[in-house]
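Our preliminary data section would be incomplete without showing what the modeling component actually yields. Below, a chain of 359 amino acids is followed by its predicted structure, encoded as tokens that our downstream tools consume directly.
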Amino acid sequence: MNLTLPELLLTAFLIGLCLWRSKAALFLLWPISILVFPTARLMIGFPIYIYDIVAVIIFANYWRPLLGIRWSLTAIPWHYVFWALILVCGLIWPVVIYSFIPEIGWVSGHAVLAFLSLAFGALLFYDDALERERVFLGYGMAASLMVLGLIGLIQFGSVDTSRAISNFFYRDFADDAFVMTDFYARITAERAAGPYGSPNGLGIVGLMAALMSLVLVRNKALVVACLVAGAIAVMASVSRQAMIAAVLATLAYFIFAQARQKGGLAVILIVMGPFLVMAFLGSDFAASTLERFSRWETGIQEDENFTARYVDGPLRLIEAVRTYPDIILFGTGPDINKLYSAGSGMVGRAQGFLSIGYA
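Predicted structure:
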């Protein structure tokens, strides 16, 4: 999604407004740029994603308190750990085994910026003075979740809307690209994918954002709205992975949460549960969901999606590791799809990782 000049100017204006009025508001833009506009970018010979720009600006404004955090065995600096792993496994080792190609540098830099999220999380968790930042992050998460729920609601069941959503988020793709085809539009009308290109992506992101809203959002009515929006995103995606994860997450919450927190969620479920169940059964979500789960009636091993992910995929990975044992220590570099398409010469190494389903 290459930004047009007006869109780029609007983005610059919003970032500038945050820096002028309150730099804490950058934590409002950050989740929106990641969750709602993951494909938004500026092309200058290579892509620069908007969420990376926002992350760098946040780091530039908060690097002093970030570096001032005192780490211990209970407060492990995970972002430093992952940065070191990326340096070795994502940059140095791929250069050794593939020889250098520009994509290796870009992918590694992109991964380093991605793990800034761990640094920001640590900063907001350990620094009590950053209450405004935490509040803005909660509002950004809530706003993103509302948009994802709305996208799932309007994309599900409508081929035309699904095509329009693809044309918006992937407008710089070639007309014959998979995400621009009528076939993809029909698929995502049956299982909404939103801006992620995958129904499982929308379902898992919707679920994770809803869970994070329980921690970040303080307004109870807004929490309920976030849970409803997250449920809509999960149902519209018809993702069995997300649905099963939602059930497990709810059980884990009741096991580990404090008594007061358990009571609050229990009240929400008791009050909202019947309405959500009736709305679900009265919608087209129910038919699609039941059809997906009915594929397990003859045995879960008969489901192509299951066997491709959890049988065929691991077998290919085992074969790749057997042929190239160094994969155990160094992996193959982040974003192997990009390295493979760039012609890095990874051959058999790629076979163990490219598309857990059908490569």
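DSSP finds 18 helices and two strands in the chain. The first strand starts at residue 41 and ends at 43. Preliminary results of this kind motivate Aim 1 of the renewal.
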